[in-house]
Amino acid sequence: MLYLLSVFLSEMPVDAYAECSPKSLLEASALRIACLIGDDRVPPIGSPLPAHFGNLIVDAMRQLNILDEKGLKRLADLKLNITKIDLAQCGHFPYVVLSRLAQFDLESLSISDAGPSDSSTFDIGEFIRECVNDATLKCLRYLNVGGHDKMTNVARIAQFSSLESLSLAGRPVCQTSLKVVRDLPNLKLLDISNTLVADISVLNELTNLEALLMHNLRIRSGCVTETLRSLSGLRVLDISKEVTDYGTDSSQEACVDLPLAMVQVLRDDPMACWPYLKSIDLAGNSLANMGVDRAADIVSLLLERNPRLERVSVLATPLDGHSYVVPVERDVKIINCATRTQAVMALSDYWNTDRDAFTAHALHCVYYMLQSSYDDFSDSEVAECAAVVCAALRKHLHNLGVQMAGSACLYHLCKLKRISRLSISAVRKCVDRCLDAAETYPETTQLQKNVWLTICNDYLLQLSGINFYRTCKVALESMLINSDAGVSRMTIAIVSIVAPKMRSQDARMLASDVRYVKHLVHLLEQNLSHFRNSNGVRAENSLYTLKFTLSALWNLTDDCPATCVVFAQENGIAVSFDILRLFENHNNIQTKVLGILNNVAEVYEQKLLMLRNSQYLEALCECLDGDFTRADATGRNRAVERSYFAAGVLANMLLCEQWPQGSRLSREDVNERMVKSIRLWPMLPVPMVSYRCVLCV
To answer: Where is the signal peptide (predicted)?
Structure first.
């Protein structure tokens, strides 16, 4: 086993490690094996691994998003000892792949929305026949078959004789299908949230039931009070509703008010209670819809009559956002958004559930707390807040409301110098979640603004460990899709900063996409025109964008001949010389232009093209001259830098064998001017970025 650890931990992918955050050597080893399975290069494993380790491998594959069809097949081929598989959010699988599950003796299985992809109906009987072995039928304790497709033969679930936990959440099943629970004597947890069950009478006398989840259930018949009274063994009860504003629940259906039904049970019998009840979720309920005081009375009654009740969620109820005095002396956790601690607590409680609406609601509350009272957050609260916000964003990637609120939270957590309060690993996760959102919602302008406002931070962009290639690529894609000027300015600034930090092969890969270079040249033309024809703020914005676009192109054309060719084909050379002429008194801008032209001049056809234009040659020679005695506040001599890069372009041009006839400047004239200029360069007090040495002939 120790040998395996040493082998599998070598060359651990940094991004994967950061994403999954393994807490032990065993988890890190499982993560490494998961990566190898994803790459289809797992070395032979000589002896069987313990089930706990096999389960960790499966979980790591799920977190890395590689528990897909190929991943499940490879996993089955390895013949690992696995007792727990969670395929939720892994996509749909055809039966030929799901049938591989029969190779494992499972105790826990979640296939929520995971299949089968070759049928619009989930037939429990067929699933058992094709995908479950006898050992699993006898030993399975946890089964999640939630989803949205039609389900048939639900009664066959009774074949899982040891089942303790069953989730049918989201399935369009009614109370008739629910009769199967009577044939599950060991059942302790039942989730029928968001189903079509309208009568829960079938649950009568299920005294072994410890957890009942009925989120967003609309009960219209049966004696609900009698059923609730009979469930004396309940420890967890969820009767929340999928609304974040109880006052906007416009349903016209005559549904039973479950919180009031519980109140009725308690008032009808002074001795009635749920003696083991520890947690109740009332989120989204109107709680009699008679104001804060009436809602507080209901919560107080539940706390006073249920001696072990220690957690009550009143999120999105009349009590939400209001202080509430607990009427009992034991420790009680009220899930509310009245304070910053409670708001973060609410998010911690809901992010890892399928309650998107409540997660978004809690995120909105956290956002307002960060916006209005960030300075009141302690370092530990900031760290916890960042962790749960990132977790929520990852879990609910495909919910726009969560992404909007969460990205706004990240902006306030990472704003300016605030980001220094976060650990490097926390910042990395913030960046990854922002990039996830930008990739998933490329055309949602406000979300794009949230993302790039967060990432456009000098401190953040200087950190090691950030995936600069992905950051640059997503920024470029966003730039292509979004026409918003603010998004364009931020993304081009980010590209210009992170492009030099990428590995050479990554930079070449990005630069090989001609769409990016074409768009950047278009930005140069557009902002050059805006600067010429505008003044005030618009001119300043154009100048800002122009500078960063030049920096980005300088880096993307470096050592990339194909990119330089595209740059020239898109009229980039002509635009560059237009900028040189317009900004003759801006050494910094001219240096960036000359840096690009240096790269372009390394391609023979392009330097020949520049050489044949006498105006280009003269403009370059003019850039050789300058006041070399002055340095700026940082000690940099901008005139020397400009002259240096102009000399670099000219040096490349001097290598051309055929000098254009009739040129006003001969080869000797150019060479002499270069030598004269170089001899005037002083020793610089600070180093100057340079890529090529100047050759004089």
So the answer is: 1-18
Kindly report which listed range (9-18, 189-198, 655-664) carries the lowest average pLDDT score: 9-18
- Identify whether residues 220 and 270 lie together within a single domain: yes
Same domain as 268, residue 175: no
Question: Looking at the domain assignment, is residue 269 inside a domain?
Answer: yes
Among 136, 165, 197, identify where a domain stops: 197
Cα atoms found within 13 Å of the Cα of residue 337, Cβ hemisphere only: 27
State the pLDDT at residue 10.
Answer: 45
**Based on the domain organization, do 204 and 332 belong to the same domain?**
yes
Distance CA 388, CA 426 (A): 11
Q: 138-172 pLDDT, tens per residue?
A: 999 999 999 999 999 999 999 999 999 999 999 99
The answer, yes or no, to whether residue 2 has pLDDT greater than 50, is no
* 167 within some domain: yes
Whether 444 contacts 399, CB under 8 Å = no
DSSP character string of 184-207: -TT--EEE-TTS-----GGGTT-T
Amino acid at 39: D
Contact, 375 vs 301, CB < 8 A? Answer: no
**Is 485 domain-assigned?**
no
The mean pLDDT of the chain is: 90
Chain-centroid distance of CA 660 in Å reads 56
Same domain, residue pair 78 and 88: no
Half-sphere exposure of 293 (CA within 13 A, CB side): 0
Which of 685, 688, 592 lies closest to 635, judged by CA? Answer: 685
Residue 293 CA, distance from chain mean position: 40
Which ranges constitute the DSSP H helices of 23-177?
A: 25-38, 51-63, 69-78, 95-98, 124-131, 134-139
**H runs (alpha helix) in 41-89:** 51-63, 69-78
DSSP-H helix ranges across 601-666: 604-611, 614-622, 638-654
Report DSSP state, residue 82.
Answer: -
Mean pLDDT of 633-644: 88
CA dist 547 and 518 (Å) reads 17
Kindly state whether residues 49 and 134 are assigned to the same domain.
no
Cα(631)–Cα(614) distance, integer angstroms? 31
**Percent above pLDDT 70 for the chain:** 94
pLDDT exceeds cutoff 70 at 599: yes
CA distances from 613 to 10, 23, 593, 618, 694 (A): 56, 64, 17, 9, 22
Q: Are residues 580 and 697 in the same domain?
A: yes
Cα radius of gyration rounded to whole Å, the chain: 33
Which of 621, 604, 694 is CA-nearest to residue 656? 604
Answer yes or no: are the C-beta atoms of 163 and 156 closer than 8 Å.
no
Q: In this predicted model, what pLDDT tens digit does every residue of 642-683 receive, in sequence order?
A: 999 999 999 999 998 888 887 889 999 999 999 999 999 998
Provide the domain limits for residue 24: 1-82
Number of structural domains in the chain = 4
CATH code (residue 250): 3.80.10
Compute CA distances 500 → 100, 424, 461, 472, whole Å.
47, 20, 11, 10
Q: Which of 82, 113, 133 is the last residue of a domain?
A: 82
